[in-house]
Here is the input.
Amino acid sequence: MTQVILKPHKEESLLRFHPWVFSGAVARVVLDPDYPADAPREGDVVQVRSADGDVLGVGHWQVGSIAVRILAFGVETLPADYWQTSIAAAYRVRETLGLVRPDNNTYRLVHGEGDFLPGLIVDIYADTAVVQAHSVGMHCARHEIAKAVLDTVPAVRNVYYKSDDTLPFKAEISGDKTGWLIRHSDCSENADTSEFWSSENGLQFRIDWLRGQKTGFFIDQRENRALVERYARGKDVLNMFCYTGGFSLYALRGGARSVDSVDVSRKAIDLVNVNVARNFPDDPRHHAYAADAFDFLNEKIINHKSQIINYDLIILDPPAFAKHRDAVRNALRGYQRINANAIRKIRPGGILFTFSCSQAVDKEAFRLAVFSAAAQVGRRVRILHQLHQPQDHPVNIYHPEGEYLKGLVLFVE
Ligand code: SAH
Here is the structure.
């Protein structure tokens, strides 16, 4: 097997179980004598050793600033049952957390580094698993992963692969980046998802992993949606950046007086309407608008009541404003602006749920942006809850970079 030898002292972070080897830490690469090329191929399983020759672990070779992502520490080769045992361990955690239930068959089975499987995401929607690779190594292992998921999760009969947007842009990839890996005979070839439903805490959602964002649904807001349900009774609710309408459904079930869902995407609004109709048929409390968030909050778009209304509860769950470090300053300005607009629209005694899913914007920076928004509007604001990603999106304690979702629940006077 190819060996990656580190520079002196560069083994320290690996001994602390940090799963990445940066390219600057690599002294040299020693290929197997019969290796068919003169450099390792991206996605190869390689062995990592210290400058003194001690075995540190095995992982996937990558091209770029991260040279190796470690799959197993302290071993010379990947155990033959590696995929089975790691996927089974991830499943046991979800069972222990009480997420696998008849009324809840939507959960994240594998959350990359947080499940010690760097570069791999697996989401479960009823009888279908959607696998997403963020590294060429995981792409190469996709068939073994699919089989391990099928063997491990009793409910799963189909495994769909969706990695067209997540694999490294310049990598040479062999094989399809998207399509069925395993398909049960009564599941149609063209993966028609129009009648595919999955439940989250007893609410039904149509999951469109083919055309939808990410793997089709944002599982990471489940617990925060449940908190909205607790506060929704009798309130006029605005769900801004609603996508599939997750927060709206919980607010309706929680007894909201009215719920307005807003998203710039027409497709998202169609999906919200389908989901509301399925769970709350003919419910007059709900209205959905395809509109830009800033225009809607600035009242360039007036809602169905043809008047300017304020809300008792507003949810702001925008897409990642900063996709990388260079964009952080602009992102913080964006968070401040949208939060200031929302705080203006809240009735006294109202509540704002505000989120950031930008990994590059940390908790403190986000809180400062929201603080600046409150100060700009000049209202008295208290923090009721500090929210984060849920338990099926765990953060590996040795890899704090895995923390990305943060939220604040504010009481606005
Ligand atoms: N809250 C959702 C997830 C939000 S994802 C859930 O619980 O599932 C972010 C959403 O913001 C996407 O659906 C995207 O279409 C929408 N969006 C992006 N820019 C927008 C804008 N300027 N105005 C309104 N919606 C926008």
The two ends are 64 Å apart (CA to CA).
